[in-house]
Amino acid sequence: MTGINDLITYAHRMITDHLAFGTTGNLSVREEDVLWITPSGVPFEEVHRDNVVGVDIASGNVIEGHARPSSELPLHLTLYRRRPNIGAIVHTHSEYATIFAALGEPIVPIHYQMALSAYQVNCAEYATYGTEQLAHNALAALGPNDRAVLLKNHGLVAVGPKLSSAYQTALDVEWMARLLFRARCVGNPRVLTPEEVDHVREQFRHYGQNPQD
């Protein structure tokens, strides 16, 4: 049950890492044909093995747990069904990312670190939380290689092959949103071109202790 353990670990970090407040936001992780998701309306620090919910991805039926799954279950199901490369989802209401979501503006690349997430973080059209329409809008705005998308007047969705990478993307995007917000308070920051971001992405393949050939 590594997925459940990871879910609990990162749920407990959501408030201290300033990615959420109260009970807003949610996380899930895929394990084969099942997704494990945080429960609805439960404070993150109170998420534990007894209230994590297991849901069959194909049918959408709860197959393990007694708590109600997050109200954003349709969003998680849609992304897992349509994007088999996604292994985990982190949905946040972090302050600066949500500012751009409220503006309906993408987070554009003024720093090369954006290459880890996308060329830019697009903003999906608004829909009421917890609806199939919201899930459809998020999927439409999330490019095939993107790892994050804003939800207009709502928040951020970060995805990844595993929960640690999706969570790190949520942190990275919040940092970049804060950087962009503050830079615009001073002036008009230069935006990197798609070619420049692509070049950085190639450089990242050879970065660290386990470079990709």
From TrEMBL:
* Pfam families associated with the record: Aldolase_II
Picking any one GO biological process from the record gives: pentose catabolic process
Any single GO CC term annotated in Swiss-Prot or TrEMBL for this entry: cytosol
Superkingdom is Bacteria
InterPro entries linked to this entry: Aldolase_class_II_sugar_metab, Aldolase_II/adducin_N, Aldolase_II/adducin_N_sf
Which positions fall inside the Class II aldolase/adducin N-terminal domain? 5-181
Q: Which UniProt keywords apply?
A: Lyase, Metal-binding
One function term, GO molecular function aspect: aldehyde-lyase activity
Q: Which PANTHER family match?
A: 3-OXO-TETRONATE 4-PHOSPHATE DECARBOXYLASE-RELATED, FUCULOSE PHOSPHATE ALDOLASE
Q: Write down what this protein is called.
A: Class II aldolase family protein
Species annotation: Sulfobacillus thermosulfidooxidans
